């Protein structure tokens, strides 16, 4: 698995599939593996690039402040290294914040934008949660930390599946590239300091906003703000799934993504 030296850190990434390039940016507490359930479908049509943001996974986690703009610059440097001039970009949660900054700072690189369970700026409840989640790893063992976070990510229906939450927690605590305490802290502060509210009008690429109807972490109102502020953005609210709909409802998410991306094809494209 390759790494590239960008902006003073080692950035981990992987490339799979063939076709038009599609970049996936994960959110807080998550590395590239968070997209795993939708990868088989995505790579059947696209060349998919996934990365670990600074502070997580196999990328460097410097013990110094991060910003969302800085992480967007990391992504831009990665694209330059790979030699990709323009790309479809999908970001989940914090990854959607990074994707917004990428589209604002490097509009020539972003062919289309898909913002999943994301936001322009958090409200007081959201900010309080993220602040706490950034501090708790220094006080709780990782298993208990997961137990605190997961109820905000998954729905009642998902919790009712026997053994499902236990499996996720077991996977997390045995994952060989668990996040560092300081990496989570610095990512949380990057989220809290990010605000694209007044700049969303400057995003000029085709944009899709997706949110789960039962998302209690980044509720529908956050996605409505994105849709209303980004010119000609499209909003899709999925009836099933919450913030973790990439795990709860992967087929529904991919279907919406494919429908959006399919509409962007040139009118003279012939399908077989």
TrEMBL record:
Domain AB hydrolase-1: 21-250
Pfam family, one: Abhydrolase_1
Keywords of the record: Hydrolase
Source domain of life: Bacteria
Gene3D superfamilies to which the protein is assigned, alphabetical: alpha/beta hydrolase
An example molecular function term from Gene Ontology annotations: hydrolase activity
Protein's UniProt keywords contain Hydrolase: yes
Protein name, as recorded: Alpha/beta hydrolase
Protein's organism: Amazonocrinis nigriterrae CENA67
Lineage: Bacteria, Bacillati, Cyanobacteriota, Cyanophyceae, Nostocales
């Amino acid at each position: 698995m390759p790494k590239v030296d960008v902006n003073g850190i080692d950035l981990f990434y992987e490339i799979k599939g063939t076709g038009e390039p599609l970049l996936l940016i994960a959110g807080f507490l998550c590395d590239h593996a968070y997209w795993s359930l939708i990868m088989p479908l995505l790579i059947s049509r696209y060349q998919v690039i996934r990365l670990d943001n600074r502070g997580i996974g196999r990328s460097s986690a410097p013990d110094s402040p991060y910003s969302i703009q800085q992480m967007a610059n990391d992504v831009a440097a990665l694209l330059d290294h790979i030699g990709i001039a323009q790309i479809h970009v999908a970001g989940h949660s914090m990854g959607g914040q990074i994707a917004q900054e990428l589209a604002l700072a490097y509009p020539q690189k972003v062919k289309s934008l898909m913002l999943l369970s994301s936001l322009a700026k958090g409200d007081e409840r959201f900010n309080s949660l993220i602040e706490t989640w950034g501090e708790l790893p220094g006080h709780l063992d990782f298993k208990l930390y997961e137990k605190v976070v997961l109820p905000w990510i998954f729905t009642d229906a998902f919790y009712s599946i026997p053994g499902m939450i236990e499996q996720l927690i077991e996977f997390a605590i045995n994952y060989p590239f668990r996040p560092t305490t300081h990496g989570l802290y610095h990512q949380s502060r990057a989220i809290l300091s990010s605000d694209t509210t007044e700049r969303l009008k400057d995003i000029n690429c085709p944009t899709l906003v997706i949110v789960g109807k039962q998302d209690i972490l980044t509720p529908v109102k956050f996605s409505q703000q994105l849709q209303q502020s980004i010119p000609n953005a499209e909003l899709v609210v999925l009836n099933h799934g919450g913030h973790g709909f990439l795990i709860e409802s992967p087929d529904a998410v991919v279907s919406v993504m494919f429908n959006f991306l399919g509409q962007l094809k040139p009118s003279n494209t012939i399908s077989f």
